[in-house]
Amino acid sequence: PFSPSQFCLSKADKEQYEKEERPESQQEILRKAAKDLPIYTTTASRAIRYCDRCQLIKPDRCHHCSACDICVLKMDHHCPWVNNCVGFSNYKFFLLFLMYSLLYCLFVAATVLQYFIKFWTNELPDTHAKFHVLFLFFVAAMFFISILSLFSYHCWLVGKNRSTIETFRAPTFRNGPDKNGFSLGCSKNLREVFGDEKKYWLLPIFTSLGDGCNFPTRLVIMDPEQLTVTSQNEPAKSSGANQSFPTRPLSESQNRLLASDSQWMEGGPEEENVKSGSLHHNTSDNS
């Protein structure tokens, strides 16, 4: 879907923005316009993410598609196979498309395999169908391998709650780039894409959570010298600078994705997200 109108500049702000030639003044206009918006990511240079072509402030995870010439919410990539952008509104359908295609190629290859074996052992009658059997088996097998690799990659992205764009360029938050900034744990990441009702997960029905503009984030600050958890008394601010949003403790629900009482920390030694108790202990030892 298109970005909501609340992210578009007002007529007065747009005229003032176009008249200004200095980037600093333009950014000041954007900061004032974005102070009430739920925006927590910026450009790598800490500037407000603004699309000059669509003339709107980009919501988090929104990117402009040069092929479609529009800003796409939670854009993943532009897919030439479906001739459309893959983003928030159709990402679940894209995954199901890959899964159904994978099963179809497997079915075709499995049913043709016995005839391919007969062809290989010269047991198949000498008919014109011999070429069709050979061609069909190789095409099904090649597409199966290709789709399997793509489907596996996107399953990994869903488990990490990343898009293809975010994999190559980590989103920049208030405290710097964080490739796992939107990751809430594998279970909740799956629910964000497929929804709360598991009975609808394999059906081509839109069940993704959220509106495409607001996304729950991890409240962990990554510091090069020391990992620290955001203080509960420190306000978390949007990129609009002046508008404060109350910081939630790690165990508190940020939306219905975080409604579970259990911690949503991701496990594994390679994960950057660690429990606040361990961080507090490490901080005391360093003191």
UniProtKB/TrEMBL annotation:
It is a multi-pass membrane protein. The chain crosses the membrane at residues 93-117, 129-153. Its EC number is 2.3.1.225. The keyword Nucleotide-binding does not apply. Keywords: Acyltransferase, Membrane, Transferase, Transmembrane, Transmembrane helix. Residues 1-25, 230-287 are annotated as: Disordered. It is found in: Membrane. PROSITE patterns: DHHC. Residues 48-168 form the Palmitoyltransferase DHHC domain. It catalyses: L-cysteinyl-[protein] + hexadecanoyl-CoA = S-hexadecanoyl-L-cysteinyl-[protein] + CoA. Residues 11-25 have a biased composition (Basic and acidic residues). GO terms for molecular function: protein-cysteine S-palmitoyltransferase activity. GO terms for cellular component: membrane. Residues 230-263, 275-287 have a biased composition (Polar residues). Belongs to the DHHC palmitoyltransferase family. PANTHER family: PALMITOYLTRANSFERASE ZDHHC16 (PTHR12246). The DHHC domain is required for palmitoyltransferase activity. This is Palmitoyltransferase. The lineage of its organism: Eukaryota, Metazoa, Chordata, Craniata, Vertebrata.
